Write the structure tokens for this entry.
Amino acid sequence: MNLAIKDIRHNLGRFALTTTGIGLLLMIVMGMGGIYRGVVEDATLLIDRVGADLWIVQRNTRGPFAELSRVPSNLVHRALAVPGVQTSREFIYHTIQRERDGKPLRLAVLGLSWPTDRGEWLPLTAGRPLQQSHFEMIADETLRLQLGEQVSLGKETYTVVGTTKSMISSSGDGIAFFTVADAQAIQFDVPGEAVRLERASRESRGRDFEQAIQQPFILEQAGAPSQQLPAIARPQISAVMITVSPGTDVQRVANIISGWGDVAVFSNDDQRELLLKGSVEKVRRQIGLFRVLLTVIAAIIMALILYTLTLDKIHSIALLKLIGAPNTVILGLILQQAIILGTLGFAIALAIGQRVFPLFPRRVILTQPDLVQLAVIVFGISIVASLLGIWKAMQVSPHEALS
Amino acid sequence: MTAIGQSEFAIQAEGLTKVYGSGNTEVVAMRDATMEVKRGEVLALLGPSGAGKSTFLTAVGLINPPTRGRITIRGQVVMDGPAAQTNLRSFRRRHIGFVFQKSNLIPFLTAVENVQVALELNGAPRRKARRSALQLMDYLGVSDRADNLPSMLSGGQQQRVAVARALANRPSVILADEPTAALDSFRGRQVMELFAKVAHEQGAGVIVVTHDHRALDVFDTIYEMEDGIMRQIEHPTVSL
Ligand SMILES: Nc1ncnc2c1ncn2[C@@H]1O[C@H](COP(=O)(O)OP(=O)(O)O)[C@@H](O)[C@H]1O
Ligand SMILES: [Mg+2]
């Protein structure tokens, strides 16, 4: 006869309530792990998807994902001239916050190197890649922009032609993909008065600029839009991504480029590492500590519950001792209840979590190894938590059954 | 020392003394109490409240060690002073059946399970244990309440289930502390007669603490306790 189950049946309502409580607590512990996985996954998804072999970034910076990086846009062509480089693309990446329908709209703007890159590599859930060099965008689902929707950014209006899933910046904002030219237009959008002031100051700067003195034509151009100024102020880009032709040693190409004085070069894995060590590291530690705290709290609560369950049975335990039940029977009674509580709690956490986590604004990813690890921890907690109850049960004398 | 089962005595208590507390709060509940119960003997223990009867019974039942004295059960010395001479819990499980004033059933087990658990603790397989438990309960007239929890039973029914549990393992010693307090006189007498029957048929030694003088004719021997002093008295039915 299984005493543990008989006792649970006798107090079924209370046990169910307690187990649900433990389950919800474990669900939060589980969710914390899932949030961490989600952060890592989201942060690295773009790097993994974009498929670059090497990233060329501003010298002494750690690249566009870690900090502001500025390189001249003609770097694309310099990189392409290196033997073994197959493709070279501009990378433009910055975050903007605008208002839309009275609510803040934060989006990470990413420039695609039109016309070689139209976003074919993106995980499109609807629509199509870009088909024209201006005024089209691909938006991530988390931005809640519908296909065909018009979005005004800066002085232009862009139409959503495609949507993606899980393309999220490391800070959790959805990514919107534009052509490089559009991305720059959005980035450098300034009010008209500021533009006029900038053009005037550019003209005056140009008068001291040796090239402009020798070629007055350049100076005439100073009042034109900045994109059209090849020599004076070409807008800069965040980084250059290159792929090497098959059979070429990536390291050799990297060595050549790192010889250039104005840039630094990172492999895709370096970028991934830097990203995880940089912006994600603190979030990871934060969530990790929180998870440890929650686990300790869960252990304490379980210990108290199991202790109370044992106290409620103390008369029965004394009686069992009186009629000669060995300690293994009493130990089994408490341990089995602890393990049933832990196991059911874990099952409830998993069942509810799988329904609730998809509703969270950021991804909560439950991986098999994480779940197994948590299951082992819960099992350990169940046993440790029952020690207090077991100690109490061992103390009680059979004589107490008579009082 | 005689091996278990060979002694003609079920219980031998020699010079049992129990002191509760110490200093100002010291109470000597039992003073040099000596008693011998033969196998097959049914013994009544009388005495006013506070006399030390329960103290004696729990000492002999190996759940309340005496301060001084020696307890021998079926020839085996089990207590020498407060020191246990064997694994008391397993000894109780195999050799001693208890019935107490309050029924003392496990509240989360049904009536039949309360009897069954004693059998299973002694290694009986579940089905066999259940069958024996039901038989005993049938004998005690409570088999119709077999699947009820103790809280659903009357005091008398609970007490009969407790008696069934005490008898389940055919113990060599049965100790009952006012077992008939919750029973009417008919059921009370029935329980006493059952103890006598078990004693005579199984060779068990039985000690029953009782206030019910009407049923004294069931007993072979009568002891009385007062202020912790134990003495044997004349059998009233004999002296009449
Ligand atoms: N656990 C205990 N601690 C202190 N004194 C006790 C304890 N148990 C019993 N006594 C005292 O010992 C005496 C005998 O008690 P008890 O054996 O219960 O008598 P009876 O069963 O004859 O009524 C009483 O004075 C009682 O107060
Ligand atoms: Mg008493």
